[in-house]
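## retry 2 of 3
previous attempt timed out at serialization; input unchanged, resubmitting
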Amino acid sequence: MMRAVVIHAPRDLRIDRITVADPGPGEVRVRLAAGGICGSDLHYYQDGGFGTVRIMEPMILGHEAAGTVVAVGEGVTTVGAGDRVAINPSKPCGRCRFCIAGHRQQCLDMRFYGSAMRFPHMQGIFRDEMVVAAAQAVPVGQDTPLEEAAFAEPLSVALHAVTEAGSLVGKRVLVTGTGTIGCLVVLAARHAGAAEIVATDVSDPALAIVGKIGADRALNVASAPQALATFGADKGYFDVAFECSGNGRVLTGLPEVVKPRGVITLIGLGGETALPVNLLVTKEIALRGSFRFDAEFAWATRLLAHRAVDVRPLLSGTFPLERAVEAFELAADRSRAMKVQLSFNE
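## retry succeeded, writing output
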């Protein structure tokens, strides 16, 4: 019997006991070491879901984690017992037209760990051990700290967004919203060759972190609502903007500061909002969405293994499994935390 972090109802988070099977053909069993609490985990914990997605049965939370392979099933050659791995929470079907076309993040039958979007729910990763398909256990190198390897999933989201925006070499970049994803977009954009990065948020603690990890300027648009106004001169300043806050009012203002033939990439999820369509048309601005990731997961593990992207400044705290409720409460407080992780098997 193994421990797992299970949400039963809003604010009803329990440490339950579950069974773990032996790996079958093509599978591996992983002993978890570190798991990061994501925004969707917080939605399940605080509200029981988001939008029309609601918890209909007890569900193990978590989709950001890394650990060590302890057993492999028949036919597995990609990893062996003792290998350190990050777990890719995406399990696309491989058969639908999007998978065949190479856009597996749009899979028609996606199974994503820790998600209540389907019923029965896809149980998550926050547990002592679990069995996964060998392809989902991606090696991170034996010297990579597992708390850093657990950033592979959110870093993949940032890398996918940067890829969707096109080349950033020598470009001026704006990042709006500096939660974990926004900060990782800053790191990914700098790695991709951005010449200048400006970041905005309404939280001074978050902006202090983004300033340390590579943003040239960090602007608080709550205390200085007109902070971006000067960037609208001469048809705009930025080549690319990444909208990570999910705030419709932020999105509405971006066409003013993005120059003609620039790109606005949307990552943050939010409600419906009105857009200045005439400005988008006359400035020939490309508006793109970016959802999850695919091949970027393996890229993320390589960057983390070589510390080409240093995520250490983003880790605000680590809690043992038994203190999961305390960890979730801290993770929900943006004034005190960026990324909070659970530690397993201690």
